[in-house]
Structures are given as C-alpha cells and as structure tokens.
Design a protein that fits this description.
CATH architecture: 2-Layer Sandwich
Low-confidence stretches: none
Radius of gyration: 12 Å
Strand content: 35-45%
Shape: globular
Strand order of the largest sheet: 2-3-1-4
Structural class: alpha+beta
CATH class: Alpha Beta
Number of helices: 3
Length: 84
C-alpha cells in the first residue's frame, strides 16, 4: 500500500459550500474502507488535502476523481504519491 496526497485547490467557493456534505460523506465511506490516511482543510481557506491509501496511482486517481468536490468542479485536483 502507498499513500497519495490529493491537494484540493479552491476553485469555486459557492460550489464548495453546496457540495461539502457530499464530499464529507464520500470521505467517511472511504474511511470505513480503510482508504483514507488523513484529511482536512488548509487554515488559509485555499482548499484542503486528502491522503488516500491505495495500491497504485491509478487506484488513487480513481478515488480522488470521484470526490464530489472534483466531480462538481468545486476544487481542482493535484494528486501526488507521498513517500512517508
């Protein structure tokens, strides 16, 4: 298993507020599946980060791209493998 940091840059504040419950529900479900290492917003309001646990970059991309924030265009995704 590897860790992948999904940096979610703020793109649309209104959409972020609208889709926040969906985003949180999505992450809660993935957390129950053991797919989330850490998550949270940045203190300056510029977005947030989710650290996924996945076997491959492709799996992590699939998980990150299905986040409602990304699907709905509220946040811009920047996904990188995190070597911890």
């Amino acid at each position: 298993m590897a860790h992948f940091a999904a940096i979610l840059h703020m793109h649309d504040v209104e959409k972020s507020q609208t889709f926040r419950p969906n985003h949180l529900s999505y992450l809660e479900e993935l957390g129950k599946q053991g797919k989330i290492f850490a998550k949270g917003p940045f203190g300056d309001g510029s977005g947030g980060m989710v650290v996924y646990i996945a076997d491959t970059l492709e799996e992590a991309q699939q998980l990150a791209q299905q986040d409602p924030y990304v699907v709905e265009g509220a946040r811009k995704l920047d996904l990188r493998e995190w070597k911890i």
